[in-house]
Amino acid sequence: MNGVVNCPKCNSEHIYQDRGLWVCPECSHEWNAESLGSDADTLHDTTVRDAHGNVLVDGDSVIVIKDLKVKGASSTIKGGTKVRNIRVIETSDGHNIACKVDGIGAMNLKSEFVKKA
């Protein structure tokens, strides 16, 4: 596949080439492989960033920026809740932070809903 493995937008493996463009059927993103550059690092940026673009690493503390409903529970994580000692993980569902939230327990969060403390 000319070095292109995943969609640069949603990181899906299920991509195909249509004429001169690459197409992702999952997010409908279309791109030209030449426009991204030949550098493979631009295609696979594995750094996890918060809602403001700050890089997150293991052990950081973050603050939740909006109320989040917890699936399978009647509780919510309130905006402004500080979460300490996060772990950056790699999953396919977009939840890329593993942590323990006080009063709720262990869970995974999406980095787009937190900011670095």
Commentary on this structure:
Pfam families: YjdM, Zn_Ribbon_YjdM. It comes from Afipia carboxydohydrogena (Pseudomonas carboxydohydrogena). This is Zinc ribbon domain-containing protein YjdM. The chain is mostly beta strands. It has two domains: 45 residues, Single Sheet (N-terminal domain of TfIIb); 69 residues, SH3 type barrels (Roll). It is 7% helix and 31% strand. It is built from two helices and 13 strands, in the order βββααββββββββββ. The strands form five sheets. A three-stranded antiparallel sheet has the order 1-2-3. It is elongated, with a radius of gyration of 17 Å. About 5% of the residues have low confidence.
Short account of what is shown:
This protein is mainly beta. The protein has two helices and 13 strands; from the N terminus they run βββααββββββββββ. A hairpin with an 8-residue loop joins strand 10 and strand 11 (97-101).
Helix content: under 10%
How many beta-strand elements?
A: 13
**What is the second-level CATH architecture of the largest domain?**
Roll
Mean pLDDT: 84
Q: Give the helices and strands as they follow along the chain.
A: EEEHHEEEEEEEEEE
Spans of at least 5 consecutive residues whose pLDDT stays below 50 are 38-43
The CATH class of the largest domain is Mainly Beta
CATH superfamily of the largest domain: SH3 Domains
- Number of helices in the DSSP assignment: 2
Reading side by side through the largest sheet, how are the strands ordered?
A: 1-2-3
Give the amount of beta strand, in percent: 25-35%
In CATH, the topology of the largest domain is named: SH3 type barrels
Structural class: mainly beta
The rounded Rg comes to: 17 Å
Protein name: Zinc ribbon domain-containing protein YjdM
Pfam families: YjdM, Zn_Ribbon_YjdM
Family: Belongs to the YjdM family.
InterPro entries: YjdM (IPR004624), YjdM_C (IPR013988), YjdM_N (IPR013987)
